[in-house]
Amino acid sequence: MAVDLGRVGVWHQAHKWGPELAAGLEQLGYGTLWLGGSPAADLRDAEVLLAATDSVAVGTSIVNVWKADPAQVAESYHRLEDEFPGRFLLGVGVGHREQSGEYKSPYETLVEYLNALDDGKVPMERRLLAALGPRVLKLAAARTAGAVPYLTTPEHTRQARATLGDGVLLAPEQKVVLETDKEIARAVARDYLATYLKLSNYTANLKRLGFSDEDFADGGSNELVDLLVLHGTAVEVADGLRAHLEAGADQVVVQQIGKEGPDLLPGYEALATVLF
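The structure assignment produced for this chain is given below.
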């Protein structure tokens, strides 16, 4: 892997990012800042994070192949590489059937998109796929530096590592709430998960892991919610994050929910004291 990502990264959608949060997380020692929410093809949101920091890696997780022209994305990649050499990773994916006007042949579309990135000379070692199932995980191993799965569990991480093999990046996202009251934490988690548990690519993946439609009902079963959104003290949450690393992840990507912008920093600082 040409970019040093560190063992722990942070994921947020664009509206939660900003220069202050990015700079603060770099100072705390987090290795990669991941930008979600289907960043535009011009990659300006990633540029803001790169400009606000000195050396931390920045990645997209993910650019949506239905929304972002690959030729423009390739041009934007090279602009960022010229301005901030060795710091940017391009994560791409197919998004969600329920949220895309066009969703025909997603696997073939991914292959065509990677072909277009080849034409745009985006190096294989600087691009990643949002991969959940075995077929796309194998594509990630064959055509990119690795996989950035979202809404997964340590058991999925273990299975993904077996599918990817050694020497391929695996950086799963993990949501957390730093709250010791289980009922409060689960309420925050269920509110955040409500949309995700209606998206078929996530529910299909969770069913492969042994969950059922009953687990998705009424905001999610306690077992499912507690796996998808870790909660408790910083020490307890850190133990849950390490479970991904022990299962074969190269990096675990933390998403703290329930707060916004710079208000997230105290929680990340508490985690940093026990993770680093």
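Interim note for the steering committee: Residues 176 and 230 are 5 Å apart (CA to CA). The mean pLDDT is 95.
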